[in-house]
Amino acid sequence: MSGGVDSAVAAARAVAAGHDVVGVHLALSRTRDAMRSGSRGCCSREDASDAARAADLLGIPYYVWDLSEEFTRDVVDDFVAAYAAGETPNPCLRCNEKIKFAAVLDKALALGFDAVCTGHYARLDPSVPRLRRSADADKDQSYVLAVLRADQLRHAMFPIGDTPKPQIREEAARLGLRVAGKPDSHDICFIPTGDTQGFLREQLGSRPGDVVDSASGEVLGTHDGVHGFTVGQRKGLGIDRPAADGRPRYVLGIEPVNGTVRVGPDSALDVTSISARTPVWASGVAPEAPFGCVAQVRAHGGTAPAEVTPSDDGVTVVLSEPLRGVAPGQAVAFYRPCEDGDVVLGSATVAATH
């Protein structure tokens, strides 16, 4: 129970379904004594209090589990290391993989519980198990759950995935939950100020390098570290003159070893194939032959028909339509289109684009 409306209603539905429910709030931040600011973050003292009040109203036991050490190691340190390596990580995806459905699930199973129930917007066919997109396309979170293995999905519950968000808020209000109107959290929970670049500067310091035109090789400016950039970025490039054609430049590539950031026109952002590492298959079995699917490269949007070819060291994803702004470190998720909600086939981490 994060302290938000989604997890509160998920708990309420689990109670109503007759399950023996225990509310657990995860203490993930080492600076959680600070109050949250607006709709940023989800690990503050205020959020813990909101979760406790919701559990009390539902009449269920409530505990706080301190997983800040695991979270720092597996999510925060991973996030910093990825940016230092010129990649663009997704910490929410990593938190689901390493914390909520690894550390939490392992502890829950050891204590005799059957499942971890969360307020994610996704649907799960428990008998298979099979993960689907949620009924609310705008809130669908199946992409950040596509890292889960079959054995983890067998011990997962997503009670609100069949309901649009406005109706979840209405249900919370009917139940008397004070979080019914609470703003959604956004940005990165361990950076409650929203200043990601400032956080990375604190962690990584200054690592000067050049901003270079990808076509001519001309040095256009300098920077304090590749961690200040991501593929597809347009603003804050530190370039003091426009391109010859007057069009904006975008980050096309990042070379962390020599500190070079390559920039160019938006047309050069088109990606037609992806090499990806460490695939995870929802069925628990790696495909033996190429297969068609819909590939998704961002939590919301960035989809295209694709053919995926598995290999010993990863997968190759050939896109039928080009996608823009695909960066190493992101996840690429694979879906089988279905009328009643696309089914997640698996995912992998983008290693390179072409």
TrEMBL record:
Q: Under which EC number(s) is this enzyme classified?
A: 2.8.1.13
Q: Name one Pfam family in it.
A: tRNA_Me_trans
Is tRNA-binding among this UniProt entry's keywords? yes
UniProt record, GO biological process:
tRNA wobble position uridine thiolation
Recorded catalytic activity of this chain's protein: S-sulfanyl-L-cysteinyl-[protein] + uridine(34) in tRNA + AH2 + ATP = 2-thiouridine(34) in tRNA + L-cysteinyl-[protein] + A + AMP + diphosphate + H(+)
| Record-level Gene Ontology MF annotations | ATP binding; tRNA binding; tRNA-uridine 2-sulfurtransferase activity
Q: Where is this site: Interaction with tRNA?
A: 120, 330
Sorted UniProt keywords: ATP-binding, Cytoplasm, Disulfide bond, Nucleotide-binding, RNA-binding, Transferase, tRNA processing, tRNA-binding
* Catalytic residues identified in the record: 95 (nucleophile), 189 (cysteine persulfide intermediate)
Quick one: where's region Interaction with tRNA?
139-141
Which of this chain's residues are annotated to bind ATP? Answer: 26, 119
- Quote the subcellular location field of this record: Cytoplasm
Residues forming the tRNA-specific 2-thiouridylase MnmA-like central domain are 198-264
Q: Per the record, what is one GO cellular component? A: cytoplasm
Where does the tRNA-specific 2-thiouridylase MnmA-like C-terminal domain start and stop, copy by copy?
272-350
Matching CDD domains, A to Z?
A: MnmA_TRMU-like
Family per UniProt? Answer: Belongs to the MnmA/TRMU family.
Q: Which HAMAP family match?
A: tRNA_thiouridyl_MnmA (MF_00144)
Summarizing the function annotation, the protein's role is:
Catalyzes the 2-thiolation of uridine at the wobble position (U34) of tRNA, leading to the formation of s(2)U34.
PANTHER family, A to Z: MITOCHONDRIAL TRNA-SPECIFIC 2-THIOURIDYLASE 1, TRNA 5-METHYLAMINOMETHYL-2-THIOURIDYLATE -METHYLTRANSFERASE
Entry protein name: tRNA-specific 2-thiouridylase MnmA
